[in-house]
């Protein structure tokens, strides 16, 4: 999927990864086009004074910004930043383009790369200094429109994770401390990795309120001729989503790819036998591949002569291909094929006449099974707690913790301070929209004050 690169935190995305990214992009791009998003491409570079436009938007991030300071041997008269995100690149032009309510809503999306020179341990897909993403930046006349779109996009992110990557996620709202500092509120879809007991943010959808409108003077004349400030959203998901899928489904044989994002969904392998008719077997494999491709199923043939069938089985299992079809002399004679599932290893012989129908059923079955299995594993990690001791025990037990919280930032900071350590501190992951019942009199696990809500807490990536 990747090749390591001679700059730390940078990776080469090879076809097995890029094809997954392209399948996700195909779905998401089609969906946002239904919402009238327009494609743009803004420059990679942003000047220092524009980037510094808003102190509290950038302040904590300054160490991550990568700068161009020279061209050839000569210094640039002023350093130029490489975009870590595009608010400051785009919004001066939103200000120029938006004059009247007729110019609203403005709906801009760009598929691009961004650079953030992180120093914590670089990890392929999960934390890299350059990554691919889409960033949506939308502008509305009213808060109601913005609020509605934030949730529409969040639902698309849930679909990317649950319907395509087969990764269960929780929709919720970030705390004031964890939200995007420049915005009004942040919603996110949160995943969880049982093996490491860490939460991971899958995607985020922010309502920026009118904060950036104030900063960049983005105003419009409404129907009554009054000048007012716009309401904005911004939202993104990144190539990190591929890493979450890998960690969620992988097993000791390697990758396990959900069919919806598998570049090859079915690999067909001829199983020659000493005196059997290899030409007929290969012909049967080729027609199986053809028939499946005609039906819109991503099938391929592995007829390499220099590898044994067994060697091929292992290789395609390692690459996570959902289904393997074996055709040998016996299968040929019985006009059947043997199909092997990657997710649970079951083998089934089906008549060649039923090929497309059965493969579709099996692929849907694998997709559903992967999500259900991941959901069960994730749910088994969720524990509700009510006291500090229970919280610490659950944290050390690598759990995803649902805790009653007073919603005070000081308490959130205090929990971080009290759980610092080489595994990283505990933090709020999100306050799930789906709130369990909170009996009156329930107190916050950390402060003892009246609890306002249930929130997910845990260590994170
Ligand atoms: O998360 C999104 C969705 C897509 C558009 N951007 C928002 C907020 C990004 C928050 N963020 C995140 N990381 C950053 C890193 C930087 F180096 C930097 F200068 C700024 C930022 C920064 O603003
Ligand atoms: Mg960051």
Shape: globular
The chain-level mean pLDDT equals: 97
Instruction: Give the proportion of residues in helices.
Output: 25-40%
Q: What is the count of β-strands?
A: 23
Jot down its keywords.
5-stranded mixed β-sheet, 23 strands, binds the ligand O=C1CCCN[C@@H]1CCCn1cnc2cc(F)c(F)cc2c1=O, alpha+beta, 13 helices, Rossmann fold, Translation Initiation Factor IF3, 461 residues, 3 domains, BirA Bifunctional Protein, domain 2, binds magnesium ion
Concise summary:
With about 450 residues, the protein is an alpha+beta fold. About 35% of the residues lie in helices and about 30% in strands. α1 (about 15-35) packs antiparallel against α5.
List the helices and strands and how they pair.
Blueprint: E1 2-4, E2 11-13, H1 15-34, E3 38-39, E4 45-47, H2 48-51, H3 55-58, E5 67-71, E6 74-82, H4 87-97, E7 106-115, E8 130-140, H5 143-164, E9 170-173, E10 185-193, E11 198-209, H6 211-216, E12 219-221, E13 227-229, E14 231-238, H7 240-249, E15 266-270, H8 278-294, E16 299-301, H9 309-318, E17 323-327, H10 329-333, E18 336-341, E19 347-351, H11 355-381, E20 382-384, H12 388-396, E21 400-405, H13 409-418, E22 427-432, E23 453-460
Parallel strand pairs: 3-7, 11-23, 15-16, 15-17, 20-21
Antiparallel strand pairs: 1-2, 4-6, 5-6, 7-8, 8-14, 9-10, 9-22, 10-11, 11-14, 12-13, 17-18, 18-19, 21-23, 22-23
Helix pairs in contact: 1-5
The structure holds the ligand O=C1CCCN[C@@H]1CCCn1cnc2cc(F)c(F)cc2c1=O and magnesium ion.
GO molecular function: ATP binding; proline-tRNA ligase activity
Enzyme class: ligase
Organism: Aegilops tauschii subsp. strangulata (Goatgrass)
